Amino acid sequence: EQIEKGGYEHFMLKEIFEQPKSIHDTMRGRLIVEEGVIKMAGIWDHIERFKNANRIIIIACGTSWHAGLIGEYLIEEYARIPVEVEYASEFRYRNPIITDKDVVIAISQSGETADTMAALKLAKERGAFIYGICNVVDSSIARITDAGSYTHAGPEIGVASTKAFTAQLTILSLIALKLGKHNGNLGNAEFMSLIAELDAIPKKIEEVLSSTHELVQNIAKDFITTTNFLYLGRGYNYPAALEGALKLKEISYIHAEGYPAAEMKHGPIALIDENMPIVIIAPRKGHYDKIVSNVQEIKARKGKIIAVVNKGDTQVSEMSDYVIEIPQTSECFSPIVASVPLQLLAYYIAVYRGANVDQPRNLAKSVTVE
Ligand code: AGP
Questions:
Q1: Cβ distance 279 to 232 under 8 Å?
Q2: How far apart are CA 251 and CA 209, in angstroms?
Q3: 63-67 average pLDDT score
Q4: pLDDT tops 90 at residue 368
């Protein structure tokens, strides 16, 4: 096992550090920047189904569901196809309206999640076209789908999903850009600039890992006895906030909630005092001015602010207790980059609390019961 961990203390840390490679592997052979193309046979062979789809329904659980939410933003923004994102466990029990004009995308790292599988079977019975985004090759979900794309993240052993999540975001980005380019909603110049940005993500993650690793480790030390956390983000980074909170809950057993930053005033703001740490994801592109005012509100109530900002940021940084800088990228890819320090934060808080990071209590890597 020590050999498999490749010198890292836990699989989770190893998997966090593998992300430049896993994202690169997921794009390899698909994103060909020099030719200005995205090659995805699974999409291309069924392009008419996507083109004529009334809507896309994304089905998933947990972290994969968070990836699905970001997929909704991506596909709606670039391909202009309506998207709904459903918890698999809710979807199947509410007699959903599904037609043969619907495309259902199932996202699952393991490809064995019982709730996702059951929801897919129902959608299939009702005539939808089923597309899979799985990490485990030849898994049950991969086998029952009509077509799909594997995330080539490699085996993920840590129960807390990290590299599979960023690989799922990579695939969803490729799908959204490919569909958008094909149906004419995404012009050539914007397409070219987005694919160049996407291609640069592995390098940016490398940079984040080396520049924030030690810093985040030190920040974590200040929160070992904390009992609650809030995670806030807007737009594409709202699901990234949900995911950051889930990571912390799963492995450190600290209660954490993710919220869209603007929803704070509708309730969670009541929780803020000097004992409440708030992780706020505030890259320059993406409602930055609005986030600044959210941060002011938190500051006025003495909340402890841990901000994830772009390099060179001043406004949010000046008001924050802790600042984690990440490189700038297009708004739509910012959750991929911003998630990395949040994974590290959850990891180190859990480690310092003496938790079993790779196998947290009560959790299984793949949930094969409904
Ligand atoms: C992620 O950290 C969790 N362990 C969990 O939420 C997981 O994402 C969920 O159970 C779905 O798993 P799947 O992607 O294998 O379907």
A1: yes
A2: 20
A3: 98
A4: no
Q: What is the pLDDT of residue 343?
A: 98
Strands (E), the chain: 31-32, 37-38, 55-60, 83-87, 102-108, 129-134, 147-150, 228-233, 255-260, 277-282, 304-310, 322-326
Rg of the chain over CA atoms, in angstroms? 20
Of the candidates 331, 337, 291, the one whose C-alpha atom is nearest the C-alpha of residue 77 is: 331
Q: Is the CB of 62 under 6 A from ligand 1?
A: yes
User: 162 in ligand 1 pocket by Cβ < 6 Å?
Assistant: no
Q: What is the mean pLDDT of the chain?
A: 96
C-alpha 4 to ligand 1 mean position (Å): 22
pLDDT at 286 over 90: no
pTM of the model: 0.97
User: pLDDT at position 180, please?
Assistant: 97
d(CA 111, CA 137): 8
ipTM of the complex: 0.98
Give the integer Cα–Cα distance in Å for 334 and 339: 8
The length of the chain, given as a count of residues: 370
DSSP secondary structure letters along 172-209: HHHHHHHHHHHTTSS-HHHHHHHHHHHHTHHHHHHHHH
Regarding the beta carbon of 61 and ligand 1, being less than 6 Å apart is answered: yes
Q: Which of 24, 29, 25 is CA-nearest to residue 205? A: 24
Helix (H, G, I), strand (E, B) or coil at 132: strand
- Checking if the pLDDT of 370 tops 90, the result is no
Structure confidence by residue, pLDDT tens digits, 334-350: 999 999 999 999 999 99
Whether 366 is in the pocket of ligand 1, judged by its Cβ within 6 Å, is yes
The span from the CA of 42 to the CA of 45, in Å, is: 6
